[in-house]
């Protein structure tokens, strides 16, 4: 684990450095407390100086919010068209995250936060990071995300199509946008998938919501895969909570498991760009690699009469990151044919937010379920 160094009470100190966003340890760290005002904190953070907070916990939260307000005073960048605007906004979000990530807190050797009025974060940090390994510095912004994730994990997310709650783990994409689950719940299952002993694959399972839907719809056995170790733990947890552990096998890290299936479902990240952190891997698929891997491997993994279901948003098309012709060409080149396509519209608030510079693209988005079969069948 990398480390940070700072001076406190004329003593040189150090601690491990943890960053789920992949940020490097700050080169300069000073201590700060409730006497520091937001203008000074913002200026130091912009200059690359990290602030290790030693004051009141709620004071740190207020300071973080104040730094965010100062960053947000700069107008939202707008480019010439949706593609340029999207890239400018992503760059602006990365800048905001970097500056706000300069306010740090110290977790002790038990993942405890030694600040006045601080909550007990030990369980949340253990669930996110694993067992403690000595004192560790982490950005307050990240820690707040860890705390929020632990609350979501306890509460769960209601999935109407499943008529149950799914419990996302930290670092695993949460099914808060349930439109894609509705598509999988309503699409006609191939006859082969309903035969006794039939197997389905759920590739990139995440929280395991789609595997659970297939099991509830009568598929006898589902093999769920993921490359993310946190997702594998999350999927097993949810299978147990739903009483489906005997029908859902979770394996990884891999895309395709061994063997063939009557149904292969894949909901890859929807935007073909490189994720800048592990936490972005549920949204960004570098170069469309997972999508291409699914298409290229599908024909050889289907049982006779089997189908592959690709669940994909066309938001990348509206952002100028991929064209529909590109997608159709990739399907054809993989030896596949399109049996049918069903679609739905997004219901999340951003699709209705007219103040969003990308509102036109988001409002035009559709989420589709492409039913694919091997061209040779």
From TrEMBL:
| InterPro entries to which the protein is assigned, alphabetical | DNA_methylase_N6_adenine_CS (IPR002052), N5-glutamine_MTase (IPR050320), SAM-dependent_MTases_sf (IPR029063), Small_mtfrase_dom (IPR007848)
A GO MF label: nucleic acid binding
Renumbered to this chain, region (Disordered) spans 1-26
Which Pfam families does this chain map to? MTS
Q: What SUPFAM superfamilies does the entry give?
A: S-adenosyl-L-methionine-dependent methyltransferases
Q: Which UniProt keywords apply?
A: Methyltransferase, Transferase
What is this protein called in UniProt?
A: Methylase of polypeptide subunit release factors
Q: Which organism is it from?
A: Nocardiopsis composta
């Amino acid at each position: 684990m990398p480390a940070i160094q700072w001076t406190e009470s004329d003593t040189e100190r150090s601690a491990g450095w943890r960053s789920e966003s992949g940020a490097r340890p700050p080169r300069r760290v000073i201590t700060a407390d409730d006497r520091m005002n937001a203008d000074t904190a913002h200026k130091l953070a912009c200059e690359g100086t990290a602030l290790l907070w030693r004051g009141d916990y709620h004071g740190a939260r207020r300071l973080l919010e104040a730094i965010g307000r100062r960053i947000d005073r700069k107008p939202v960048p707008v480019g010439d068209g949706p593609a340029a605007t999207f890239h400018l906004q992503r760059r602006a979000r990365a800048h905001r995250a970097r500056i706000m990530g300069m306010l740090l807190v110290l977790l002790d050797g038990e993942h405890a936060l030694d600040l006045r009025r601080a909550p007990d974060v030990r369980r949340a940090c253990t669930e996110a990071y694993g067992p403690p390994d000595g004192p560790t510095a982490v950005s307050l912004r990240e820690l707040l995300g860890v705390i929020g994730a632990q609350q979501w994990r306890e509460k769960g997310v209601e999935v109407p199509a499943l008529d149950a709650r799914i419990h996302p783990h930290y670092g695993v994409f949460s099914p808060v946008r349930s439109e894609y689950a509705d598509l999988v719940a309503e699409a006609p299952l191939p006859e082969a998938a309903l035969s006794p002993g039939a197997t389905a694959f759920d590739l990139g399972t995440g929280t395991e919501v789609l595997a659970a839907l297939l099991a509830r719809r009568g598929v006898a056995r589902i093999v769920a895969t993921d490359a993310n170790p946190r997702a594998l733990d999350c999927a097993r947890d949810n299978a147990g909570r739903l009483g489906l552990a005997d029908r859902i096998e979770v394996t990884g890290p891999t895309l395709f498991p061994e063997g063939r299936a009557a149904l292969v479902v894949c909901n890859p990240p929807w935007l073909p760009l490189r994720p800048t952190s592990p936490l972005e891997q549920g949204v960004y698929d570098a170069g469309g690699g997972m999508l291409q891997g699914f298409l290229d491997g599908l024909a050889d993994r289907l049982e006779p009469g089997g189908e592959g279901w690709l669940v994909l948003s066309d938001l990348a098309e509206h952002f100028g990151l991929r064209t529909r012709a590109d997608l159709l060409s990739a399907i054809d080149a993989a030896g596949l044919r399109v049996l049918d396509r069903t679609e739905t519209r997004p219901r999340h608030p951003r699709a209705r937010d007219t103040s969003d510079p990308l509102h036109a693209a988001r409002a035009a988005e559709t989420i589709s379920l492409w039913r694919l079969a091997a061209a040779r069948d």
